[in-house]
Structure formats: structure tokens, C-alpha cells
Backbone:
């Protein structure tokens, strides 16, 4: 939906359940369980108390491996997405519930039924973060294994969305379910939906993917984009590109909400926050994690690499094989290695200090007032529509933000003081389906 000319932009916030990633600080004695339902309840209720648009649950279909061993941050495991979100629907009232589900290893009929069920049980609060999984390592868990070529992953993703929509749209109000059919390169499906049209019609569709294919897919099909960028200028460029792609796909520029992931560290002063942020980063990146991070880029084992020393003199290999199940975002390994070497020489960093700097995502660090000002600045400058907040602590890491930053955003008049709608689509200001 378009907003009036000159109006200040509304800030959208969501809460990412921290877990098996490089953000969560498991060394903190306050860290709780990743699998206890009470952890999910605490974060979801905190997000709802903070009037956030949705709770965001990530997904992983296989534990990552490095040097043939399970990555230690993954050992805690991850429950299945749908039971968690369906259960959270019973203990929340307005909060949207978004789950990450692969388009590669799931079938349209099952997905249509599962998300329609969640939308019915939550009275219109369901969302689907659509992701692709193209690596054979993940595929080994499934009957068809690594059958899907990388270049076909968005072909299947597009057909998955198209086929699930056929089922969602097959049961008109006051009419019996009609038989539907979908035929494409990936699917040949004929059947009937078991559920009537859900409150939202379609769940809100979220997408994460920064490649040209990923951006094109998101601009054509997604209601919101989960992305990463580290500066206001980079955010403005990404947002402008996605909005232009949405227009080219026949959509309104504001039909797609841009929601980068962001962490935050609060302090009573700028110096206090900076010190806390540095301490957290070195908890997140221990010596072993720093070496593994470099080995992931180099693609080979680097025995004897000193976490406090320089990077290897050799260049990364073209076909990395030391890490399995983790996305390698860097396309030009040699260029990235040279850029890292320049940073080391300029700042005198060892490997661990370098990794601390280059591996961090968008982060807001400062007093609550500074963080509120920065979030508002990004949104008003059209560098984002808001942020998916990623706390560093499970499950209480969002509490301080809701208590200290949300009231300051409300004072600016750009963040809601109460929910005005009941569905996730209404929270995000999206068109009805």
C-alpha cells in the first residue's frame, strides 16, 4: 500500500529466535535452552509486549560440519518449525508467526495444508520464509538427495509458490473445494485442498536471497525480504533495487517490505555499549571459530593457523570442501582474501580480531536513545522498512530492547502504541489477498 506523500515512514520490527548461528552467546551463564518450549514462549511474549509484527523462526535441515565434525554451535539442535509455531499461536494473540521452510525438499500440497492450518489456528498470523536448499550435503537427508542442480533452485521455488497458491485459492467462500491441477518442470500435481480459505488467504511470504536470481524471485513473489547490509548507503541501494524489481514485476513499490536482520547492544553510555559489544563479539568468535571461519573461505584445512597471527599466504581454492551445510556467500575468494590481508596490515589485527570485524552483521550499538535514533534514521532514509532483531541471548535477549528502546521509538511517532489489526498482513500494511 502506498503512503501519503511527505508522511514519515512507519517502523516495522520483528524478533528472530536466536539459535544455531554465530550470533548467540552460549558461553553466557544466563543462556537458556534452545529446545525448551518455555524459551520460545518467553521470546514470543516479549516480542508481542513490544508490539512487534512477527516472531521469526529460522530452520536448518542438517547440522553443519567442519573438518568432518559437527559445528559446535549446532549441537543443541532445533525443533521442527510447524509444531513450535502452532503451539505459540495458543499463547499469543496478535504476534505474527513466521517459519523458515525450504522450497527444495517439500511438496506444494503439504506446504499449502501446513501453512493454511497455521493461519487458521492463529486467526491470520501465519508467515512463510521461503528458502532454497541446493547443496547435496543437505539433500542426503531426503529421498532425492542432491538431485537439484544449483541453477534450478529458483525454478523449483517459483513452481512451489505457484502450486501452493493454486491450493490456497481453490476453496472460494460459500462454494465446495474444486479440483486443481498444476504442471511444470518440477511438479505435476492434481488434487483438492482439505481446508477452506484461511483468514489471510495466503500467509505472508518472506524471502532471503541476495543473488540476482534471489532478488528477482523475492521482488516477484515475496511480501517481505529478510536481508543483510552493513551501512545506510548499502541499505538504500538494496532497497532501491528491490523496489525497482518489484515495479518491473508489475507490483507497487511498497508491496515488498525490506527487513534486514540486525543485532543490538545497549549501554548507559556510548563507551559502555562499545565495551559490551566488544566483549560479546569475542564471546561469539573464540579462537576455534576464528580459524574455522578462515578455513571456510580458504576451502581447505589450515593446520597450525595462529588465531593471533596473519592470514595464510596461499589463496583460497576454487572448490571448497572443508565445510558442509553452510552457505558460502563469497563468490571471489581470492579478492576477499586480499581485502582481508589489507585490513590486517592497516589495523595490525590477528586472525581472530579480523574475523570479529568482518563477520559481524548489521549492529546497533549505543545508548537506548542512540539506537532508537539510528533505527528511525535508516527507515526514514529508505534504507529499510524496519528490522528483524536478532538478540544475542536465548531467550531473554530481547527484554532490554522492549523495555528501553521501544518507548523511545513510540515517542517519535513512527512506531505503534497498540496493534490496530489482527492479521500479520495488517501489521505489515500489506494488501489483502
Residues:
Amino acid at each position: 500500500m502506498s503512503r501519503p506523500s511527505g508522511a514519515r515512514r512507519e517502523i516495522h520490527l520483528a524478533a528472530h529466535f536466536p539459535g544455531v548461528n554465530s550470533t548467540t552467546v552460549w558461553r553466557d551463564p544466563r543462556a537458556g535452552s534452545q529446545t525448551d518450549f518455555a524459551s520460545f514462549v518467553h521470546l514470543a511474549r516479549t516480542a508481542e509486549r513490544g508490539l512487534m509484527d512477527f516472531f521469526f523462526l529460522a530452520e536448518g535441515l542438517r547440522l553443519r560440519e567442519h573438518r568432518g565434525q559437527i559445528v559446535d554451535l549446532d549441537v543443541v539442535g532445533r525443533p521442527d518449525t510447524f509444531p513450535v509455531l502452532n503451539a505459540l499461536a495458543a499463547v499469543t494473540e496478535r504476534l505474527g508467526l513466521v517459519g523458515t521452510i525450504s522450497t527444495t525438499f517439500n511438496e506444494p500440497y503439504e506446504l499449502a495444508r501446513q501453512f493454511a492450518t497455521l493461519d487458521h489456528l492463529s486467526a491470520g498470523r501465519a508467515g512463510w520464509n521461503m528458502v532454497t536448499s541446493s547443496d547435496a550435503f543437505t539433500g542426503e537427508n531426503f529421498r532425492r538427495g542432491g538431485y537439484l542442480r544449483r541453477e534450478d533452485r529458483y525454478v523449483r521455488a517459483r513452481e512451489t509458490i505457484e502450486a501452493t497458491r493454486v491450493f490456497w485459492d481453490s476453496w472460494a467462500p460459500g462454494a465446495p473445494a474444486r479440483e486443481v491441477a498444476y504442471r511444470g518442470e518440477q511438479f505435476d500435481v492434481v488434487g483438492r485442498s482439505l481446508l477452506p480459505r484461511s483468514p489471510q488467504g495466503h500467509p505472508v511470504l518472506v524471502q532471503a536471497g541476495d543473488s540476482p536470481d534471489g532478488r528477482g524471485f523475492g521482488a516477484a513473489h515475496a511480501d517481505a525480504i529478510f536481508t543483510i547490509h552493513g551501512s545506510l548507503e548499502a541499505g538504500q541501494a538494496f532497497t532501491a533495487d528491490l523496489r525497482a524489481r518489484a515495479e518491473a514485476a508489475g507490483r507497487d513499490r511498497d508491496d515488498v517490505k525490506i527487513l534486514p536482520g540486525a543485532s543490538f547492544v545497549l549501554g548507559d553510555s556510548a563507551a559502555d555499549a562499545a565495551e559490551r559489544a566488544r566483549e560479546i563479539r569475542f564471546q561469539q568468535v573464540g579462537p576455534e571459530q576464528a580459524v574455522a571461519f578462515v578455513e571456510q573461505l580458504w576451502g581447505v584445512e589450515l593446520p597450525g593457523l595462529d588465531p593471533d597471527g596473519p592470514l595464510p599466504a596461499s589463496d583460497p581454492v576454487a572448490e571448497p570442501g572443508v565445510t558442509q551445510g553452510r552457505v558460502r556467500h563469497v563468490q571471489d575468494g581470492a579478492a576477499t582474501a586480499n581485502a582481508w590481508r589489507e585490513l590486517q596490515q592497516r589495523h595490525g589485527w590477528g586472525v581472530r580480531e579480523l574475523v570479529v570485524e568482518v563477520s559481524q552483521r548489521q549492529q546497533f550499538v549505543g545508548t537506548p536513545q542512540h539506537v532508537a535514533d539510528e533505527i528511525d534514521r535508516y527507515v526514514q532514509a529508505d534504507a529499510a522498512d524496519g528490522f528483524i532483531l536478532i538478540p544475542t541471548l536465548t531467550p531473554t535477549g530481547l527484554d532490554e530492547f522492549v523495555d528501553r528502546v521501544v518507548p523511545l521509538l513510540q515517542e517519535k511517532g513512527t512506531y505503534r502504541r497498540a496493534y490496530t489489526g489482527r492479521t500479520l498482513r495488517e501489521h505489515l500494511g500489506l494488501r489483502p489477498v
Q: What stands out?
A: The CA atoms of residues 31 and 394 lie 5 Å apart. The chain has a mean pLDDT of 89. The longest helix spans residues 232-248.
